[in-house]
## 1
Amino acid sequence: MSKPIPPVHKYMTPGPITIGHDQKITKAEEVMRENRIRHLPVLKGGKFTGVLTDRDIKFVQGLRDLEIDKLLVDDVVREQAFTVDAESPLDQVASEMAEQKVGSAVVLQNGKLVGIFTTVDALRALSELLRTRLGH
């Protein structure tokens, strides 16, 4: 008999580091670098509004005639983030991330940000599941 597929919340990073929408891009870059992360959920008034990625920052840094130190997170953040419910099955989340070619899924519970599931989390989940379900 096979085991049920675990929910994404079992493998997500709970209580992810976030940044306010009105913070400077340079601050966001610093937070990412210091914490060695590539995805930074953005909050406005405590509510999740989007995800800023290291790729977004690198893109705007490459634009000419742009004063990067004056840019705010709100100026750059993509509001079309991939979100999932905390109870979503892990296989469906991983499959959808692969299909959409995104590096993270923001995990919500009752509309509130509770975690983030990244490709690093997915690799940890894969490793654990292979060891516990297929290992000897």
## 2
Amino acid sequence: MPTNNQLCNKKIIRKRKIKKSKSPDLKRSPQKKGFCLKIFTMNPKKPNSAVRKVARIRLRNKNEITGYIPGIGYNSLQKYSAVLVRGGRVKDLPGVKYHIIRNKLDLVPLYGRKSSRSKYGVKKK
């Protein structure tokens, strides 16, 4: 790292750090459409224990990703179901960097939610 004096005298140009994307397969878009290849469950990393629902998805840009299906209980996904994917990793599932958006395309909302309804696609009563 150059000092202020060196920057003034020698005209050294500072290089900006290039920010690496946390969801590279979306290619700088907020969401991408895709279809499910496989729906399965995963076990989380060490201190947690559960069975989390995930899906293997092929996006429109031919990339294959693993997406998390949020919410407790029922999901209507099958092979070749159309889904909308957003960024956002799941901390305790290694390699899962994407969330599937509920109440869009083939994934039904999580009925019976009272709080955090917007994350699960539930309309106000």
## 3
Amino acid sequence: MELRPGYKQTELGVIPEDWVIKSLGEIGDSLIGLTYAPSDVQPHGVLVLRSSNVFEGALRFEDNVYVEMDIPERIMVRTGDILICVRNGSRDLIGKCAKIDEHAHGMTFGAFMAVFRTRFHSFVYRQFQSDLIKRQIHEHLGATINQITNKSLNSFRVTLPSDEAEQEAIAEALSDADALIESLKQLLAKKRNLKQGAMQELLTGKKRLPGFSGAWAEFSFGELFDFYPTATNARSDLSDSGDTYYVHYGDIHTQHHTHLNFEKATVPRIDRQLCQNAALLRNGDWIIVDASEDFDGVAKAVEVLGLGRDEVAVAGLHTFLLREKTATFAPHFKGHLRNLNSLHDQLLRVATGMKVFGVSKTALKNVRLPVPSQAEQSAIAAFLSDMDAEITALESKLEKVRQIKQGMMQELLTGNIRLV
């Protein structure tokens, strides 16, 4: 393929003629982290940056370790240092990094981390986020060792504009993209918090929508619902080609939230003959998971929506299938109830287990729910659905901006697009 004017072919791909290829060892220093004993860990002292302090390319301080000991000045982090995870039980986490800012200046870092120190830090930090460095990390990991050595780190090669002004321009453009991503994340967090607050007030009757007043009724699950049999199949029985949709409890934990809309969700299938004893689902059914490995997932539930007239579906292993004895709830309303704090508190009180927390059918039948009129339920559900739609739109926008930034990074860090 003919090269564009002003570009050259290198072992790292096509780059501008005035760019160079350097190993990290030629342009900076790789520093090994601090080794410390359990007795050195104290409630206060110097904070040791670890893998848990790096999240999505930035520093966070929610899981901190402090030590009181003599620490060499060389491994006290400085503004502009690039902090890198070089050893971890999960291979996917090796290479994740963050740039040290003024808030972290003077901290140190642990033995499973490394710091790369260079005067070209603004540009090189972006190279650590790119496929160029990630490929080299993968090549050096080997088949069994989840670690990058200092020797390997120094050998990694990067493309580098000869003009430092171009380096800074590229870094600034990508920083602007990061700033937009961060602003969208903060807005999304704000919208989620607003929804959570509104939900707690609306679902308890503390706040009423215009046109509604009067006391709510209260019923137990046993008064409201019949419990129907569910399937007991393992994930290995599922496929993409069975004649029956199978709602797996693991998917409720990880993929489906509040509502399971069969018109939109991807649901595995099973042959009906393998789960003949399970009741067939109907729109409006409430599926509740009976076990969880954490408190947040105890009795997580979804309301069934969008199931076509000719579509067949069952609830699977570790679930309860609840169906209203008489028409009590407006469509879409039940799906929001699992997020009600007072309901979750009741479920936690009746949950049992040490490592896996479960809720029995007997206990569930005694849990109580506040129930407004169906007209008020419909209004609440519509209000919350509008908030969900706004959050979903923001999530889509955030994902699109992240993809655009990734594309920008590929184009800018290879010199395919020039800024100067």
## 4
Amino acid sequence: MKLLLQAVKLIDPRSKYHLDHIDILIEAGIITQIAKKIKALPEYKVFKEKALVSPSWIDTNMHIYEPGLEYREDFKSGLKAAAAGGFGLVCIMPNTNPPVDNNAQLAFIKQAAQHALTEVYPYGAVSHKIEGKDLAEIYDMHEGGPIAFTDGSKAISNAGLLERALLYVKKFKGVILNNPDNRDLSEGAQMNEGINSTVLGMQGAPKLAEELMVSRDLFLLEESQSRLHFINVSTQKSVALIKAAKAKGLAVSAGVNVANLFFDDDELLDYDTNFKVHPHLRNKEDIKALLSGLKDGTIDVICSGHKPLHEDEKKVEFENASFGMSTIDCAFAVSHTATSKVLNEEVLIDKWLKGYELIGLPIPKIEVGERADLSIFNFDEKATFQQKDILSKGKNNPFVGRDLTGTVYGIVKGNKTNIL
């Protein structure tokens, strides 16, 4: 394929063409020319929308439930939705059935996803069967590729297990990801503890459940001098704790889900189960702190937090509904809409690229001779997100009917694209 991108604006501070309007010619998957104007030959496929181009984005928090739970999301549907959402690489949580806790499971995922447009980075589980008791086969899995390990949506509650894992991955400069939630404090909770949980008569989870685990994990990190990433944080105090830890020089990083930037717990007043998520939707002060954390670098990455569920898991009484929100299809537009008053557009794109550093991969280069690995988008176009825009199997997406700013045209990955 010979693909010519005409008059696109490049967003890539690493490139000498940063913020320039340029033409990019891609032949057989390789960038062969970058110039102000490239003549379009008859054999070229030409893309000439008013668009921006950046290195392809990475999502560091996505669930695809193959094998075992494909009724929620399989690789075909999940990766098609991710590509439409502008993501060239997605990091997949290990919460499948069976869990990804050995090399055989890693090999299955790589085989199942090998022909998709969006590439997959599978996290390995920290504990055997994600039961939180014994270490999984971390070193064997590392030899198969991953340097990042997590129990995904399950918090690593056992402090001894987390400490051993931190020390173990230190041998190969790996990283442990944790979902901070002290279940001793949050067990049975349906939403954030506060005025709204009292009004609704629901059991609430105190913010302390997250903050206590963040604090514990940071103590263990300081002791081990390893690397730790908080998958998703949601409270003002969590941000402050992480900021202080970074100031001390600890190798800690953090992410935030798009839902926690966009929604507060007022949304639950109508008992809409699509807003039943984890981490819980907090209040406006917490959102303000999360945005400040993004701006000052305390929070390193924005992630989709994509957790697709079957309608039978959502269209039930609130207390019986499963936690999760389907977001990958609209995550970019949500992030732009939520952060536009705080982050400039270059910083926003950087938050969708920082994940490469987390998993030890270089950010794709937009240079002549490099493999094409691009996200193509527009910051300005406004649209109402609609049900038809959801390509994921998971229809538990509360952004339907919301006005969002930002359009994704698609991605280019080598010799494959979905923009034409």
